[in-house]
Structures are given as structure tokens and as C-alpha cells.
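hey can u check if this looks right to u? its 415 residues, i copy pasted from the old doc so theres a chance i mangled smth
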Amino acid sequence: MSTAIVFRWFIGGLVLSLALVSLRAQAQEAPLRLGRAEVAELARSRSPDVIVAIRRVGESRGQLVGAEVLLRQSPWLDVAAGPRFRPNDTIPDAEVTLGMPLEIYGRRGAEIDAARGAIARDEALVGTSQQQALAEALAAYYRALRATAEDRWARQQLDLTTALLRTAERRRDAGEIGDPDVALLRVAAARARRAVTTTEANREMSVTALKGILGIPGDRSVEVTGELGSVSSEFTDALVRMAPTDRPEIVAADAALRASRLDVDAEQRAAWPVPVLRTTYQREEGNNVFLLGIGLPLPIFQRNQGPIAIAQARTQRLEAEREALAIRVDAEVRVARRRYQAALDGLHILETDAIPAIEDGLRLTQRAFELGQSDLTRVLVVQRELADTRREQFDALVELADAGISLQRALGVLR
């Protein structure tokens, strides 16, 4: 192979390697897009609390493995041998005993049932952890949308104030207004720039907080997608009329109570003595002796009283907790419904009455100022009123999202 061909192959391989490295770098730099669906999926699968709850299920499965062993105690073997000294001679004696415990009271089955009950309990607790993580992540997601919307609004206000400043400077040059009006607008423009700096920082902080909740590394680029205004269509008055379902907390409490009752049964069965079947072979004075016997511990002092009492007390506590949980859930549903209805009504008032009126007023006063038919003070007052009303709208949208998430969680329908 000639040197030219080798050189061409080398250059081609180098170009291909550089292209692959460039594509890989671009793929790594591409931001992770997070909408509501992506946030919900990551919260259910990558939240630290959810991962811990899933690992707890693995521990319970390990208990089931131990309970499914055929015998809690393995057979045992005793061997003894030695000389028998007689007046005229010495002969060897030996004894071999094989013992086999007999678990005849259903203890193994009771422990298997108790282990399976513990698995069901911990699996239900996974659902509880997922609901908590989902509610926290979605709340952070809507806060990030609010910060993004507020940042966008602040930039629009900056552009508007800058345009007003140019108009004022033009009118001053024409002798229509004086320097104090221009100075006032310059102050307003400076405040608008400061607002943009603040809202931009708030947006970055809200995205960072969302990444922390979802377990995303801090240096990973993330783009939060969605519009805060979509809250109005996602959370409607139909949610108020929705019937409650079995909440994960209720399911987990019922599973824990069943598991505790199975533990009581298993501990009560463990109080019964386990008989041991013995088979013995003896070599005594040259004779072969075979013995069959049974051993039985006498439960005079130890009857597993402590574990039984603990299991019974735990069951009573769980019964009380289950009753208290039912009362608390009912109260949470009532409170969440009222809060959600108030959030719906408040947002409707702002979007129907306040926002359109103040936007029309600002548009008219700006036009009047440009035509010289209105003073600057009125424009700034209306503009400030619109800014305050818009922030109230952002707050109302986030409140509706928070109230909707709380109601969905209270009803057991958060997905």
C-alpha cells in the first residue's frame, strides 16, 4: 500500500472522529426539555424519596425469602464415641443421633402471609411517596412557569417604557413637554431594567429548584416548556365535582393494618413449642441399638409473650391511625375543594373584569400621550396599575395550580 493511500485513510479517519466528537458534544449540550408530562414522569421514577420507598420493598421481599424456607431450624446431628473399660478388656461404644424439628402449627404459612402483607404495605407506601413527589415537582414546575412568564412580562414592560422614553424625548425636542417628564421616564426605564434583572434571576433559581427536586444534576441544561396561562384549561370547575377515590395513604394504612394482624397470628403460632423427632443409633457392649424418640420444649416461662404483646399493641395503634387518617382525609378534601373554588373565582374575576379594562385604559392613555392629549403622569399610573394587576394574575394562576394539585391529591386522582 502506497504512502498516499495510507495518508488518505488517516485523514478520513481523523475527519470522521472529529465529526463524531462534535455530534456527541452537541447531543450533550442539547437542553433537556421539561413539560408537565416529563416532570410527572421524572418525579415518579427519579425522586429520592420514591427510590428509597422502592428499595424498602426489596427489604420486604427479602423477609419473604426467609419465611419461605422449608424449616426454620435445620436438622442436627450428634455423634459421640469412646472406649468402655471393663475388668478384662476395653470395647468401643458409639452413639449417633439425628434430630428433625417438626413445625406442625402452621407457623411457616403464617410468616409467609405476614411477609406478603409487609410487601403489600411497602408497595402501597411507594404510591404515597410518588404522590408526594409528584405534588412537590408539579408545584415547582408551575412556579418555574410563573417565573418565566413574569420575566417575559418584565421585558415587555422594559420595551414599552423605552418606547415611551423615545416618544417623550421627541416631544421634548419639539417643545411639547419639559425635561422633568423625560427624567421621570428615565427613572421608570431604570426601574424596568432592574425588574428584568430580578425576574431573570428568579427564573434561573426556579429552574434550579425544579432540577433539584427531580434529581437532575445542576450543570445539566434544562428548558422548561409550557405556558402559565394553560393552568386555566388544565384546572377547570369539573375538578370540584369529582368524586374521591382510594388515596395511596388509605391503601397503605389498610395494608399496614393487615400486615400487623398477620404478624400477631405469626407470633401467636411461634409461642407453641416445636417438637423434635430424634432417631438414635447406639453401639453398646457390642450390640446395635436403634431408638426413636421425640423431644418437646416445655413452655413454662417463655411463651413468646413479648413479641405477641408488641404485635398486638402495634395493631391497636394502626387501627387508631387508620381512623384518624380517614377523618383527616375527609377534612383535607373539604378544605381543598373550598380553596380550589376560591382560586377559580378569583382568577375569573381578574381575567374577565380587571385585565381587559386596564389594558384598554393603558392603550388609550399611551395613544393620548403620543398625540399630546394626556400627561405623562397618567400614563405611568395606568402602566403601574397594569403591572400590579398582571402580577396578581400570575399569583392567581399559581394559586389555582397549587389548589388544583392539592385537590387532586386529596381526591387521590393526581397523575
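Strands lie at 32-34, 76-85, 90-101, 222-224, 276-284, 287-295.
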